[in-house]
Amino acid sequence: LGGILQTAGFTKGTEEVYAAQSFAASRDALRALNRNDAVERAYKRPEIFVLQRFDPLGVAGSFEDLYEYFKKKVAVQNDATTSITKLTVRAFNPRDAQRFNAQLLEMSEATVNQLNERGRRDLVQYAENEVIQAKTEAQSAGAALAAYRNLSGVLDPEKQAEVQMQMVSKLQDQLISTRTELAQLRRYTPMNPRIPVLQSQLGIIESSMRGELRKVTGGNRSLAQSAVRYERLMLESEFANKQLTAALASLEQARNEAQRKQAYVERIVEPNLPDAPMEPRRLRGILATLALALVAYGILRMLLAGVKEHVQ
Length: 312
Description:
Helix content is 69%, strand content 9%. With 312 residues, the chain is an alpha+beta fold. A four-stranded antiparallel sheet has the order 2-3-1-4. Helix 1 (14-24) crosses helix 5 and helix 6 (157-188) packs antiparallel against helix 7.
């Protein structure tokens, strides 16, 4: 008794092909098939020839023994040029062969689907983790910049320095005008009562100019000193925001790619029920037995002839 069932299907993706092949001949697949001892009972039927039966003497009935036996009954062949994988199950009953083949095919499809789902999930999860990290860094950089602004009382050192320099420029114009007027009065009307007023005004303008210049360039609290720290914090904040934008774009791309990336098993030939046993090949067995018998007979004749010649 014998039967062979062949099922063909094609799958996209080399990793998925190898995964399906490995699973079909794995211990997990056999464990799933052998629920309620289905595989053992199928290959231990009394009508099976004793030399082909599983554990005919009842001394090697462990799961590992069954696995080694079942591996010889399952064959997975993959054609790399056509991406077609053929699953063959050999059994001593056609319905057993069809049933085991269909179950292995379904489990292989489930394995490929599981790999697809895990690949999509890992791809999106990695992108989401990058977004979370970039968002945290952007928030930290923004908080550091806001804290520095509150502590230093400077919103934008560069713009504030421009305002201060404009004030210095106006004071310089007033200083030049006052000095010119004072020089003219001293030259033409030395006793003019406005001269002391202009001298006092000149001192006030010079003092105001020095104060405004110190705000821009002098001391640790000057705008020039604040600009160094401010520019560094601003660059860190801008860089973190750019990283966040890139991470969000990567996340969107990962989601789109996860939706497009599909590897699947498509059945070309459904599991079929064999209508005639393909094994054992009786004619080939008879001819092989006859050939071996003739060879053994020839060897025996030669041995007997040698013994007789030696005795004589």
